[in-house]
Amino acid sequence: MKPTESTEFTLLPDLAVRTLGGAVIWASDEAFAEKENLILPAAATHQAATFGHKGQVYDGWETRRRRRSHGDAPGPDDRDTAIVRLGVPGVIRGVIVDTAWFTGNYPPEVSVEAIAVQGYPTAEEVAALDGWTTLVARSTVGGGTPNAFEVDSEERFTHVRLHIHPDGGVARLRVHGETKPDPQWLRAGPFDLAAVENGGRIADCSNRFYSHPQNILMPGRARVMGDGWETARRRTPGNDWVLVRLAGTGVLTAAEIDTSYFLWNSPGAASLTGFRPDGTEIDLLPRTDLLPDTRHRFALTSTDPLDEVRLDVYPDGGLARLRLYGTLTEPDNDVS
């Protein structure tokens, strides 16, 4: 299997990223650099000739050099492994094994597997499980590059297992896909139908020059401007927008449009348009002026079941978060 040049799947959320609740729960070895670095949200960085007590400091996961008897090179079946519990279970559409800054110490080959488990098993229990599904067959990768692989599977997974053959370093592991949380949780009462952790996702957007629109659906409050979505300065007529696919068909009762940390680059106004399952649209929130660095909350009065909502911003700018609260009428998440 060869890396793909297409990265369209990166519009989907990274199910493994730490800010979504992902965790690296187990690794066979992390002698040089910690496994937890694999899922940090920021791109890997590097400072040459920066040495710690384990050698050059790397922003990634790096294992020791494997040796066989008498110091011989590793065999063809030798490998190191890290297991990631996804922040939200989901259907995986693409994987990026990023070897940024690893140029003389990256693994020549990688493979990726996944599994779905119920409940909260320990790391040791997950590591001992059989029945893993291959997402990326053993494949050659390059050093210092984001190696992207498309995944062809409709299964729902909770954990991902990265193998590196035979050893070396990987900066980041990105696991892009569609969230599929437990529907029992979604039926418990009103919730944010746009949130990534509940199954919402970005379906399309006009511009993602400075940052990914998926950020506005992430958990918690933004901490800095870079935690949100910001478009380039518009020099042509029109406005920027983002289309949100809800967790399922539902009725919305409230919305929050948060411009926190956007002081001189927040939109001047915004509106919300809902889309019924048959594709027809309804005005949820008319064009409304926004303030910078403010959490704006609006009651919504429509009783129409919707499955998508478009947020229009005028003319451009940045937002920290978008929340769309309501209840599902037709849950479409499946744990099977």
Automatic annotation (TrEMBL):
<dbReference type="GO" id="GO:0004037">
    <property type="term" value="F:allantoicase activity"/>
</dbReference>
<feature type="domain" description="Allantoicase">
    <location>
        <begin position="199"/>
        <end position="328"/>
    </location>
</feature>
<dbReference type="InterPro" id="IPR005164">
    <property type="entry name" value="Allantoicase"/>
</dbReference>
<comment type="pathway">
    <text>Nitrogen metabolism; (S)-allantoin degradation; (S)-ureidoglycolate from allantoate (aminidohydrolase route): step 1/1.</text>
</comment>
<feature type="domain" description="Allantoicase">
    <location>
        <begin position="21"/>
        <end position="179"/>
    </location>
</feature>
<dbReference type="InterPro" id="IPR008979">
    <property type="entry name" value="Galactose-bd-like_sf"/>
</dbReference>
<dbReference type="GO" id="GO:0006144">
    <property type="term" value="P:purine nucleobase metabolic process"/>
</dbReference>
<comment type="similarity">
    <text>Belongs to the allantoicase family.</text>
</comment>
<keyword id="KW-0378">Hydrolase</keyword>
<dbReference type="Pfam" id="PF03561">
    <property type="entry name" value="Allantoicase"/>
</dbReference>
<feature type="region of interest" description="Disordered">
    <location>
        <begin position="60"/>
        <end position="80"/>
    </location>
</feature>
<keyword id="KW-0659">Purine metabolism</keyword>
<protein>
    <recommendedName>
        <fullName>Probable allantoicase</fullName>
        <ecNumber>3.5.3.4</ecNumber>
    </recommendedName>
</protein>
<dbReference type="InterPro" id="IPR015908">
    <property type="entry name" value="Allantoicase_dom"/>
</dbReference>
<dbReference type="GO" id="GO:0000256">
    <property type="term" value="P:allantoin catabolic process"/>
</dbReference>
